[in-house]
């Protein structure tokens, strides 16, 4: 978390410097105003999501996580994560904190990778918009190709993850 904050802080300083170089204080001021408006819009959502993840951690019994979402759950955990990722509304701003809560609650590496991959690729909530923008054929092709990727990613993470993450 600290590393991400440092990276984002460096990026922020870079874009503020670029804005100052290209347009001086008026451009910097406009960037700060727009950023402030965005934060006012997103802040309530983020607060709700973080409180929700706290309750997920508190309310999910360890036995339930062990049975359905741990490394020992195997394909059952992969399947649950595959469906849950596709059905999670809001994409990353909601799904990533939920995934972090699952990790803290004892979910397996393969399950979390499956969930995050499914969240990124399948999100059924956005299908109507995709059909409207791309058409049914392209959306259907994208969905068909993307359907198998989350469980494959999860199975690979389950098999290779412990060695890659320094756990045996």
Short synopsis of the structure:
With 168 residues, this protein is an all-alpha fold. The protein is 83% helix and 0% strand. The longest helix is centred in the N-terminal third of the chain and has 58 residues.
Alpha-beta content class: mainly alpha
User: In total, how many beta strands?
Assistant: 0
Shape designation: globular
Q: What oligomeric assembly is this protein in?
A: single chain
Q: With helices defined by DSSP (H or I, 4 residues minimum), what is the helix count?
A: 8
The topology string of helices and strands comes to HHHHHHHH
Q: Report the portion of residues in β strands.
A: under 5%
Low-confidence segments, ≥5 residues, pLDDT <50?
none
Average predicted local confidence, pLDDT: 87
- What does the radius of gyration come to? 20 Å
What count of structural domains? 2
How does the major sheet shape up?
Answer: none
Helix content: over 70%
The termini sit apart by 25 Å
Secondary structure elements and pairings:
Blueprint: H1 2-59, H2 62-68, H3 75-87, H4 92-104, H5 109-121, H6 127-134, H7 136-147, H8 149-164
Helix pairs in contact: 1-4, 3-5, 3-8, 4-5, 5-8, 6-7
Description of the structure:
The protein has 168 residues and is an all-alpha fold. The protein has 2 domains: 1-44; 60-164, no CATH class. 83% of the residues lie in helices and 0% in strands. It contains 8 helices and no strands. It has helices spanning 2-59, 62-68, 75-87, 92-104, 109-121, 127-134, 136-147, 149-164. The radius of gyration is 20 Å and the shape is globular. The chain starts with a helix and ends with a helix. 23% of the residues are buried. The mean pLDDT is 87.
